Every structure is written in C-alpha cells, then in structure tokens.
Amino acid sequence: MGLLELLYEAVVYPGVLFLSVAVWLTQWYYRKVCARMQNRMGPSYTGPFGILQPIADYLKLFFKEDVSIEGSSPRLSVILLSIAIGSVVALALMLPIAPRPIASDYDIMLAMYLLIWPTIALALVGALTPNPFSAIGTSRLFSMTLAYEVAFVASILTPVVLSSAFYGAGYSLYRSCLEAWRLWSDPRTFVPMVLSLISALLALQCKLLAKPFDIPDAETEIVAGPFTEYSGFKLALILGLHDVEVVVGSLLITMLFFGGFVPFAWLPWYAALIITVVEYLAVVTIITWIRTITGRFRVDQALVLFWKYVLPMVTVALIISVVMPRAP
User: Fold this and answer.
1) Which whole-number Å values give the CA distances from 290 to 75, 204, 214, 294, in the listed order?
2) How far is CA 297 from the centre of its chain?
C-alpha cells in the first residue's frame, strides 16, 4: 500500500470522513430508537426528522467556552483523546470495509492494543482533573475495566482462533472477518461462536458506558464522573470518542461474527451493502434496546455479572477454540 492510498483510507474512507458521517447517522438512529422505546419523539426539529440534531450538538460544544480548572492538564487531555480517536480509526482500517485493509499474520495483537487504548485514555483523562467526582468516576472505570476488557478481548479472540485453525486465517483480524461467518454452519464451532457473541455484545455495552453499565459517569450520583470538569472542545472529543467506538465496535462485531457483505459477495454490490447496513443496525439496535430497558447496576453488580458469568462463559469458548481438533 502506497503512502497516498494509506492517507486516503485514513482521512476519507473508511477513515475520519466516513466515520464522521457514520457517527452522525448512527447517533441519530440511536437516539430515535431509544426515544420510540420510551414513548418519546426524539430529535424532530433540526433538519428533516431531526437528522441534523447530532451535528447541531457537536457544533454547540465546539463554540462553547473551554474551561480548564487549576491543577488540570488541558493539553495532555486533548493529546490523549486525539490518540484514542486515532486508534479507533486505525482499527477500522483493519476491517474488510477498507479498500485495501491493513493486514498481516498475527495482526490481532495490534487490534487488541487499539481496542484497549481508548479505555486507558478515558481513565487517564479523568485522573487529570482534581475533582472528587472525577476521582470516584475514574476509580469505578478502572474497576470495571479489569472485567469487561478481558471479556471483550477474549470474545474477539475466539472467532479469530477458530478461523485461523479451520480456514488458515493466520490470526489476522482481516482474514478472520472473511472466514469466521462459516463457523456458524459447523456444529463443532457453533457453541463457541454463540458464547463469544453474547460476551462481545455485553462487553461492548460496558465498554461504551451504556446502561446498565453507565456506572463511572452516573449523572444522578457523581454528575459526569471522570468528565465532570470538561466542557467545550474537550467534551466534544470525549463524546466523539464514545460515538466512534459505537460505530467501529458495532462494525467489528458485524464483520467478525456475521461477515457483513462477505457471505453475499455474489450479489450485486448494492444488495450486499444493504445487507451489511441491516446487520450493523441490528447490532446498534441491540445496544440501544439493552440501554433503554435496564437500570444502572452498582459497581459490585457489574463486576459479579462479568466475573461470575460472562468471563467464565467466554473462557470456555476460548478454551474450546484452542483445544478443538484442527481440520485436516
């Protein structure tokens, strides 16, 4: 891949511009579905059907005063958040949606790092402000990270290990996305795929700090937790990181577990695109549904859920994928 091609993918598709549009439309869909489930209208007045409301919200934050309290590190916060957004964009370049994805054997290790870095950045950003609410929220975030990040990584590893064993994917995220959908039709790999999919959805819900796992930034308890002292441009970066994680996390599950357009490559491109969008929206709808119908867990309840149920479940799936007899 040449430098110009890499710049095009990083900046245009599936990079910053594409993800910005995806964030805009996904955020509007997310809010509309949530509102309908709660018998509300949702965004309705800014643009047709309120579709411009997410853009208006970001513009409002960009033009608001950016207040920095004494003892904080505003420049370091911006640097950490920018690197975190960049890591999520880089992960998108490793998926089959990219014209020429970044791929090699064992690149799953790089993908794991890119997945974990946004959480580390958010925790550090919260720790940079001397505020009791920020301290409590950051402490909660660190506690939860020990549970859901392990579960998310293990749930992503399971289809990668299986597709590498049965279809020669070479522990590459890109090649695993091309092959893992075949695992659903094999009785030997069906159960590990189901267990890892359930774990991935729950861990992504927790990673996004969406209900019932919005414990670190619980509004009614600790204002905004780690993000209490942030406003203006820096708050826009925090929300932008969250929304980009929603898009890329949902795309990752769509491509790795269902194959996206890959199983339908024999169809016309527009039909395969529509199917991929439907699969993606199904994942986003599940996230929204869980967020809407549940109340907030306590920290101990969230940890018990992951350590007692989710982690053992995905560990069993990962062990099965490792010890299962390989195809000849």
Assistant:
1) 36, 11, 12, 6
2) 20
Q: Give the 3-state secondary structure of residue 212.
A: coil
Using alpha carbons only, what angle is made at residue 270 by residues 264 and 276, rounded to the nearest 5 degrees? 55
Which pLDDT does position 27 carry in this prediction?
A: 93
- C-alpha 224/C-alpha 230 separation (Å) is 9
CA distances from 100 to 13, 130, 322 (A): 10, 44, 30
Select from 83, 95, 116, 32 the least CA-distant residue to 248: 95
Q: How far is residue 285's CA from residue 294's CA, in Å, rounded to a whole number?
A: 14
CA dihedral angle for residue 36, residue 88, residue 169, residue 188, rounded to 10 degrees: -40
How far is 226 from 243, CA to CA, in rounded Å? 17
Does residue 328 form part of some domain? Answer: no
Number of domains observed in the structure of the chain:
1
DSSP 263-315: GGTTS-HHHHHHHHHHHHHHHHHHHHHHHHH-PPPPHHHHHHIIIIIIHHHHH
- 10-residue block means of pLDDT along the chain (328 residues)? 76 87 94 89 86 91 81 83 92 87 87 90 87 87 86 93 88 89 88 94 92 85 83 89 94 92 85 92 93 87 90 92 72
Contact 48, 306 (CB under 8 A): no
pLDDT at 326: 64
Domain that holds residue 185: 3-323
pLDDT given at position 325: 64
Q: What is the pLDDT of residue 263?
A: 86
**286 in a domain, yes or no?**
yes
The answer to whether residues 77 and 128 touch, using CB atoms and an 8 Å cutoff, is yes
Tell me the Ramachandran region of residue 178: left when phi exceeds 0, alpha when psi lies from -120 to 50, beta otherwise. alpha
Q: How far apart are CA 43 and CA 46, in angstroms?
A: 7
**Is residue 99 in a domain?**
yes
Place of tokens 């958010």: 122
* Residue 189 is assigned to a structural domain of this protein: yes
